[in-house]
Design brief:
It is a single chain. By secondary structure, the chain is mostly beta strands. The N terminus is likely disordered. The longest helix has 5 residues. A hairpin with a 4-residue loop joins strand 2 and strand 3. Strands 1, 2, 3, 6, 9, 10, 11 and 13 form an eight-stranded mixed β-sheet that branches. The chain is globular. 2% of the residues lie in helices and 38% in strands. It is built from two helices and 25 strands. It has one domain.
Length: 416
């Protein structure tokens, strides 16, 4: 039996277009047959979109309006292995805003989310509804501001939507081909093992229900956003294994770093072009210490903690246009393993070589992964999959030439 290992991005917007007033997903009148689920694809890893919404936020009145939206750029209906069950059991009330609060440094929105499936019962036979193989990982809310211009960083040639959110776990371009936008967008993780330091691979299991927060820059203007719920997923079981799945973590997680923190450890001075200030970068990456499978052709038989291909951090770049005319690069961390309780730490010593005047400036961090995106889609891995008719699959190159995570930080220059 051929074991295919495909990484893909599935747009599951129709997942939220059903009607339900109860806590359980609605059973469709004509369920999709299991014939659409290939039992030859055990062990593949994917990136998916669980839903998309438009958000109107009034920070003065502390009111909001959130509406499900559909995107047709890649397709309408996506039936690919186990993820089809996220779409054919719609759950419109699985994601909602629970509250809003205003603080001097941020506007906080509390969001509630629950998994559309309850965990299966091991003593009953497997079925389309009775299963344990739909746990997802790295579930995140990607925020697309509507209206504000992105900030351009010339030497890294990157545009970042950095003016609308604060405290983001990072910025990503993974939706570039979906929303036809080249900007890196901020995201907030629903499950972040950074909070506890204990690794669960940011697991959001069947039956889970959680509250998380997104933070926006304080303003008196009405704000407009699109929100995309993205996640990592893998086809971890055939039909008869649905109650005993095998999750290949960290292969089923995001390949790029899942969290990046950046901070300057001091302030610069406007008339000093030689004294350096440390910029500290902490990087959390599931694949950093993982063993690469010795036989990728038979990856489905590998230990579940191995990865198909090397996906360590390849390098970190830092640009502060106001302070320096280029960018800084390092390929080796000063310390750490990349784990939730021991991040990779990079220290950059940067001076105000441009003699930038006193003020507050934005710096950019670019974390580049070693995973080879060029293998898609010829080798049936690491590509975007579209199935508009639910039967035939189309393969697309990933939007960027490499797996990347971005982060921004504030560079403060004082008067001498």
């Amino acid at each position: 039996m051929r074991i295919s290992t495909i990484t893909f991005l599935i747009i599951l917007i129709s997942f939220f277009n059903g009607c339900s007033s109860a806590n359980n997903p609605v059973n469709p009148a004509d369920p999709m047959p299991d014939a659409f689920i290939s039992e030859s694809e055990t062990g593949q890893s994917n990136i998916g979109v669980l839903g998309a919404y438009s958000l109107v936020l009034d920070p003065v009145a502390l009111t909001y309006e959130m509406t499900p939206i559909r995107k047709t750029t890649i397709g309408e209906s996506f039936i690919v292995d186990g993820t089809s069950f996220f779409t054919i059991f719609p759950c419109p009330n699985c994601f909602r805003i629970n509250g809003i609060a205003s603080y001097p440094d941020a506007i906080r929105i509390d969001m509630n989310i629950r998994h559309p499936f309850q965990a299966g019962v091991i003593t009953l036979p497997p079925s389309g509804a009775n299963r344990l193989d739909l746990d997802i990982f790295d579930l995140a809310a990607v925020i697309q501001p509507v209206g504000p211009a992105a900030q351009f960083f010339p030497t890294l040639n990157e545009t970042i939507q950095s003016s609308s959110c604060v405290y983001a776990e990072g910025y990503t371009k993974e939706l570039q081909n979906v929303i036809s936008l080249n900007d890196a967008l901020p995201y907030f993780l629903v499950v972040s093992d950074y909070d506890t330091g204990i690794s669960t691979f940011n697991k959001f299991a069947m039956g889970d229900a959680l509250q998380f927060q997104a933070y926006f820059v304080p303003t008196t203007l009405v704000l407009y956003f699109n929100i995309y719920l993205t996640f990592g997923y893998g086809a971890s079981a055939t039909f008869w294994q649905r109650l005993t799945p095998k999750y290949y973590n960290p292969e089923f997680n995001r390949k790029a770093a899942w969290r990046v923190a950046a901070n300057s450890m001091g302030n610069w001075v406007d008339n000093d072009s030689t004294t350096t200030v440390d910029v500290r970068i902490d990087i959390y990456d599931w694949q950093q210490t993982a063993t690469v499978c010795a036989d990728p052709a038979n990856f489905a038989t590998a230990p579940s903690d191995q990865v198909y291909s090397d996906s360590t951090v390849w390098g970190v770049s830092v640009e502060i246009p106001a302070l320096y005319g280029g960018y800084f690069f390092r390929g080796t961390a000063d310390s750490g393993t990349g784990a939730p309780n021991d991040p990779l730490t990079f220290l950059f010593q940067i001076a105000n070589e441009n003699l930038a005047p006193a003020g507050e400036y934005t710096g950019l961090v670019l974390v580049t992964d070693a995973r080879n995106v060029a293998i898609a889609p010829a080798l049936d891995r690491d590509c975007i999959i579209s199935s508009p008719d639910g039967k035939f699959l189309g393969k697309y190159e990933l939007p960027q030439g490499e797996y990347e995570t971005y982060q921004t930080f504030t560079a403060m220059v004082n008067i001498h």
